[in-house]
Structure formats: C-alpha cells, structure tokens
Design brief:
This protein is mainly alpha-helical. It has 9 helices and no strands. It has helices spanning 3-19, 22-33, 40-51, 56-67, 75-94, 102-117, 121-134, 142-162, 164-167. Helix 5 (75-94) packs antiparallel against helix 6 (102-117) and helix 7 packs antiparallel against helix 8. The longest helix is centred in the C-terminal third of the chain and has 21 residues, at 142-162. It is elongated. The model is unreliable at 166-180 (pLDDT under 50).
C-alpha cells in the first residue's frame, strides 16, 4: 500500500472490520494471527463473496426448498407452500442452477399439496384421472409435472374459495385436469 494511503487504510480497517459478520471477523483475526493481515480491498472482496446473490448457502437453500418442502396439511398452507416452491424454481434459474430431477420435484410437490387435494372426493377423483392420464407417479415427465402444478393451483384456489365442505357436493369437472 502506498505511503499516502496507509493512514486512510489504518482508519478504515477497524470501521470495515466492525461492520463484517462475526464469522468473517474471526476468520480475519485467525489469518492475522498466522501472519497474514488482509488489506482493505481483500476484506471487502470477502464480504461481497459472502453476501452476493448466488453464494453457496443461497444455492443450497434454494435447492433444499425445491427438494424438501415442508409438508402442508391445510389448504392455505398448501397454496403458500406452492407459491414458495415455484419462487424457488425461478430463483434456481436466476442462479444458473440445474433443476433437480423431475421425479424428485414431483415427489416434493406431492408432499406440498396431496394432503389438501384429497380432502375433497371430487378433486381427488380428478387428481387420480390426471395421474392415470400422465402415468404418474410411475412415469414422471416435465409435461405431467407442469399439468399437476396447474391442477394443484386451480383446485387449491377453488377449495379455498368454496370451502372443503361445499366442494364435496360439486360435480367433477374434466376441464380442470388438463386432459384432452
């Protein structure tokens, strides 16, 4: 560091170091004890790597949201879980990550919505028809997964607006299953 900048660096070092998270500060202290004192730009670079979008923790969390969502028992929780699950898919594309296998994503989607969809007999019947049409869960394709997502969104919203008890009196509607 040129002599004229050492005074500025001397004043900035404690300010920047105090603004860093505890784990990064401890790492910098350990490096200083081993004889390597980080320069200001090195400290800032490490902070940027830690907080930038797409850091390793962000990628792991995004994939975990897709592969291991929290199972939902209520209709509202299923709707919110499905929105979060779809947002994780979009985030995965933003980060340039490969999506998990389609069968893994189908199993995760089932954990999210199946308990809510089987509450109504007619919705469960349409769900079974959709499964037979696409060969689910034995043969999972991207098209089958997308149809199941659309089916779940539409029927969960319908169940929420009508209430589960009212929908038990409704008739099955083949237009909502996505079958030709």
């Amino acid at each position: 560091v040129p002599l004229r900048y050492r005074e500025i660096e001397g004043r900035m070092r404690p300010i920047i170091k105090d603004s860093l998270p505890q784990t990064l500060r401890e790492d910098l202290d350990n490096r200083a004890l081993s004889g390597y004192a980080d320069e200001i730009q090195s400290m800032l670079f490490r902070a940027c790597c830690l907080f930038n979008p797409g850091n390793p923790a962000d990628k792991c969390n995004t994939l975990a949201e897709i592969m291991n969502p929290t199972p939902c028992g209520s209709i509202m929780a299923s709707i919110n879980g499905l929105k979060k699950w779809k947002a994780a898919h979009a985030r995965c594309r933003e980060l340039g990550l490969d999506l998990p296998d389609v069968s893994t994503r189908f199993n995760a989607l089932s954990m999210l919505v199946d308990a809510s969809l089987v509450q109504d007999v007619h919705v469960d019947f349409r769900r079974s028809t959709l499964f037979m049409h696409h060969g689910l869960p034995d043969v999972v394709t991207e098209e089958g997964l997308l149809d199941y997502i659309k089916f779940a969104e539409g029927n969960l919203t319908k169940l929420l607006s009508e209430g589960v008890n009212k929908t038990s009196a409704s008739q099955p509607n083949s237009a909502t299953i996505g079958a030709p």
